[in-house]
Design a protein that fits this description.
357 residues, 4-stranded antiparallel sheet, binds flavin mononucleotide
């Protein structure tokens, strides 16, 4: 039994869609909890006015009845409220009538740091919009909705996941300074998961390693350029005697430099992962580029854009980690009904005689 997530949706298309398979039947979902995560993703100092246009709210199309999962594919939909301004430009079918609204003119000037140039070349697009609409981080809303579902599943086995910005105390100042300079910033986020039992993931294959899976989940988010587990890069400069977490009676650790994972398997300590975000590539002071229509030097397009999105990344990263941990938990505990899943978890904890701290 495993959990899968497929998302679809363009930034200014009609809606974003997430389909989750592999959920047990009988899991209680709370609409407000999903919407609360969607709203948290839209918050943060330094976001663009787009966030005022979009007030994301989830709709459920399948897999849920009276607030409980049916054990069938769960289909979630988040409408793009901004689509009303793009109905001609983003019409799925050949548009009728005169061009009106946004997105009517082909984009031919690729923005450095975006999917624009490579995407246009790879897929043979004359209009770069055909690449940038999906490459945009807008569809992380669908992942966050799925992450909220994963979080509900994890709560059944006592696992709590939370994300935050690392060194965020002076974020407002740094955003203000960057905005004044018509520039952008990145940042680092940290996600912690408490209550994860020992034994999620495996050393058996590289695909099964929990550290590899969490790294892939975080690297799968736009603008993430580095991931570390536990003390990560700092471990490289330590001696072995300082770097490892000694085991004490009760089979716990006094330190957690490994970030809760050894040999690709959760070890019962808190899972700690960090992701580094590059500065956002759309600048109000445009970077140099080339117009693909003329071959002449040009300035990159200035679309409405965030100055910083690191607080949003904390929410998106939290959802990604929650989904991956839920997937590993489904593999370990299985069960078609939520009670079977919970009972397998309880029986396993009894066998290994482990209680979370
Ligand atoms: C939550 C979130 C919001 C983002 N908002 C913007 C934005 O407003 N402007 C921008 O240029 N990039 C933004 N990005 C980053 C781009 O989507 C990303 O850099 C781009 O798609 C290229 O992908 P890459 O950075 O992974 O190579 C955002 C990323 C995230 C995770």
């Amino acid at each position: 039994m495993t959990l899968t997530l497929t998302t679809a949706g363009e930034s200014h298309g009609p809606a974003l869609v997430a389909i989750v398979t592999g959920l047990p039947a009988g899991l209680v979902l709370d609409r407000d909890a999903i919407n609360s995560d969607l709203h948290r993703r839209q918050q943060g100092y330094g976001r663009s006015p787009r966030q005022q246009i979009e007030t994301d709210e989830v709709e459920v199309l399948a897999g849920l009845r009276h607030g409980r999962t049916l054990g069938t594919p769960l289909a979630l939909l988040v409408p793009n409220r901004d689509h009303k301004n793009w109905t001609w430009g983003m019409s799925p079918w050949p548009p009728e009538g005169e061009p009106t609204g946004k997105g009517t003119k082909p984009v031919t000037v690729p923005r450095p740091g975006h999917a624009d140039l490579a995407g246009a070349m790879k897929y043979g697009h004359d209009d770069i919009r055909n690449a940038l609409e999906r490459a945009s981080a807008r569809h992380t809303a669908a992942s966050v909705a799925a992450g909220a579902v994963a979080r509900a599943l994890l709560q059944v086995i006592g696992v709590e996941v939370g994300g935050s910005v690392v060194g965020g105390d002076d974020l407002e100042t740094r955003v203000d300074e960057a905005r004044r300079d018509r520039d952008t910033i990145g940042g680092v986020v940290e996600v912690r998961a408490r209550g994860v039992p020992p034994g999620l993931g495996s050393y058996a294959t590289k695909e099964a390693r929990l550290d590899a899976r969490l790294a892939a989940a975080l690297m799968g988010i736009q603008a993430v350029k580095g991931v570390e587990i536990g003390d990560g890069f700092a471990l490289a400069a330590m001696r072995g005697s300082e770097a490892h977490d000694e085991i004490v009676p009760g089979l716990h650790r006094e330190t957690n430099r490994a970030g809760g994972i050894e040999a690709g398997v959760s070890n019962g300590e808190e899972i700690v992962v960090r992701a580094a975000m590059k500065p956002l590539p759309t600048l109000m002071r445009p970077l140099q580029t080339v117009d693909l229509a003329t071959g002449e030097p040009a300035e990159a397009l200035v679309e409405r854009s965030d100055t910083a999105a690191v607080e949003a990344l904390a929410v998106v990263a939290e959802a990604a980690v929650a989904f991956e941990l839920a997937r590993a938990a489904r593999e370990k505990f299985g069960g078609d009904a939520i009670g079977d899943f919970a009972a397998a978890h309880t029986a396993y904890l009894e066998r290994i005689d482990w209680t979370p701290r």
